Amino acid sequence: MALTLDDLARTAFDPGAVPRVGVAVSGGSDSMAALHLLARHHAVAAVTVDHGLRPEAAAEAAFVAKACAALGVPHDTLRWAGAGAQGNLMDQARRARLRLIAEWARARGIGHVVLAHTLDDQAETFVMRLAREAGLEGLSGMRPAFEAEGITWHRPFLSVRRAALRDWLGAQGVGWIDDPSNDNPRFERVRARQALAQLAPLGVTPEALGAVIDHLAAADGALARQLAQFGATHLREEAGDLVIEAEAFATLDPELQRRLIRAALTWVSGEDYGPRAAKLARFLEVPKTATLHGCKITCAKGVLRLTREAKAVMALRVPAGGHWDRWRLEGPRTEGAEIAVLGAEGLRQCPDWRAAGLPRASLMASPGVWRGEILLAAPVAGLKNGWKAQIARGTFYSSLFRR
User: Fold this and answer.
1) Known binder of ligand: residue 29?
2) Is 231 annotated as a binding residue?
3) Where is ATP bound in this sequence (predicted)?
4) Which residues of 327-336 are buried (b: 16+ CB within 10 A; e: fewer)?
5) pLDDT tens for residues 379-392?
6) Would you say 6 is a known binding-site residue?
7) pLDDT of residue 170
């Protein structure tokens, strides 16, 4: 018997595991349905991110705030200051949204947040990844749950068509806002949606693609478990680095080698995506010391070591007490302090850095707490001064099963 929408909302979280859950609400039909359904069964707090990309965004956030007030649900609006960013603006906005919501959730002691992706989103994503010639990892679809930024994210309505959510909203007398950009063919997702409409007469529907994705995800999970078993014996994490036994790596099937290095580079770099296939293939022909995907790979003393490349984060500076690159730093409140890469200059200010037992390149790419040119702390390099640092994206093991 198929689960109802109320069933999906009620069973979205382990019983008793979460005192309050977060839900990201844009004002569109999917997220408005998620808000109302979750509020029936859980203590909920809602958040809206105003990316500043459209003039209507502020009014949409106000619409969500009013709906939340009627439900008795706490609501916050977050604003992204990166609307003038260069490059793939939509991708940057998506990443900023995840980061901002995670910061919001952690500040409120919320460990679980719902994203209102539907089966339509799943099918559109599959088509877009198909166009990019994605492999098994990419075509396995979005996962119902994953960990990132210290938060567990849930997609309880991933098996549900958008039309079903809209029908439910209509029956409840709940309105929503239609984003005009959802019909703009300038965006890849809109073109994928239009292509799916053309394919429907052939039986290529979101439901059919959902079944295909389930099959691919099962195969992807089997390979991920193989890599996890390999990693339990032949791989270790070391202060944000990954160290792989070279001899054992050489015995892996080439596809498992590719998947392992791709996953390793993605985790070490902190990026959402792996390196380009051609560059990865060139490295794997004869593994050697190289820089790839913002990481440095060294092959020496019987191991492959993957570390963050200091050059890749040289320009990154954030106020002290927050996230920097892959790291979360906590320490005493210090006026005017910033987190930036330790670098060669910072390492010179750490007299006992060798006691950390890490390569120089690894330490140079680690975070330092600075006030101007003065280094206040470098917890990875042994200069703690009340500060501690930890990787914010979870373990490498968990990343093998994450989307």
Assistant:
1) yes
2) no
3) 26-31
4) bbbebeebee
5) 999 999 999 999 98
6) no
7) 97
